[in-house]
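Support request from a user on the community tier.

User writes: "When I paste my structure tokens into the form, the page sometimes reloads and wipes my input. The last time it worked, I copied everything first. Here is what I submitted, just in case something in the input itself triggers the reload:"
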């Protein structure tokens, strides 16, 4: 069959092709080998969080630490002393996706990807501890709202990933503009001028309609609030004042009074009590 797609269109197909290959590999090798899971009949349905692995920074890990502390779940907070410690785990295959954060459970199972870990903590609390504050599994529609908010957080961070990592992992010929300081400056300007205000306006509308002051309209904060807080806070403080202040502007959240109230509420009712 002759392809009538342009080079650009063909490039856009690669994520789909690679995704399909990945699924095929997963089924061929079996999830037992991919994720180090044993037969489900050999283990309880849930195992308690045991050890959290991440760098000694906030990054994608602090929201998970906060969730565990908020639910008073004891855990070992393993912070890599240097990058070599992380690279060793990456090389020996401990990290399925070659990334952290990672959460080791009491039965030895390793969980990866921050949103998956957050949901597991929420479901563990609901199922085992009978505490649905983080993720009310008895209310599927509320859980769907929470999931959507967490997905929205991923969307907000897409531009920041391009700013921070450039073409790393996306080595396509048609993306040369993602490299260099000029590109960083251009990306940061568009994020501050256009992208972040759009996202913040949407979040402002959602939180304004909440009768409880929490994003999912629940009586207490859920994983959606724990997920969105560091993102909104980073945007407000210019992402990272030490490294990025030359390109990002501080105080973008000041225009959104209800978001500011929510940030204050989270600080007072969650962070100060951890």
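"...and here is what came back when it finally went through:"
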């Amino acid at each position: 069959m002759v392809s009538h797609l342009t080079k650009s269109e063909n490039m856009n197909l690669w994520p789909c092709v690679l995704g399909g290959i990945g699924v095929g590999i997963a089924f061929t090798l079996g999830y037992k080998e991919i994720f180090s899971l044993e037969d489900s009949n050999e283990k309880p349905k849930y195992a308690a969080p045991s050890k959290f692995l991440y760098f000694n920074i906030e990054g994608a890990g602090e929201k998970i630490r906060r969730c565990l502390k908020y639910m008073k779940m004891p855990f070992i907070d393993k912070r890599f002393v240097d990058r070599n410690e992380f690279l060793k785990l990456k090389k020996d295959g401990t990290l399925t996706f070659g990334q952290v954060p990672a959460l080791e459970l009491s039965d030895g199972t390793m969980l990866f990807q921050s949103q998956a870990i957050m949901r597991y903590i929420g479901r563990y609390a609901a199922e085992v501890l009978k505490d649905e504050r983080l993720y009310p599994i008895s209310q599927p529609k509320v859980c769907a709202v929470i999931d959507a908010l967490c997905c929205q957080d991923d969307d907000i961070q897409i531009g920041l990933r391009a700013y921070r990592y450039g073409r790393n992992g996306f080595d396509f010929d048609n993306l040369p503009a993602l490299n260099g300081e000029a590109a960083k400056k251009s990306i940061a300007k568009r994020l501050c001028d256009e992208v972040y205000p759009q996202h913040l306006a949407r979040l402002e509308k959602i939180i304004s309609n909440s009768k409880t002051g929490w994003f999912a309209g629940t009586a207490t904060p859920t994983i959606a609030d724990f997920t969105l807080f560091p993102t909104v806070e980073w945007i407000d403080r210019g992402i990272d004042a030490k490294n990025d202040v030359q390109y990002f502007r501080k105080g973008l959240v000041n225009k959104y009074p209800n978001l500011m109230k929510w940030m204050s509420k989270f600080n007072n009712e969650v962070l100060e009590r951890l």
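Agent notes: The reload is a front-end session timeout and is unrelated to the input. The longest strand covers residues 49-55. The first helix runs from residue 7 to 29. Escalated to web team.
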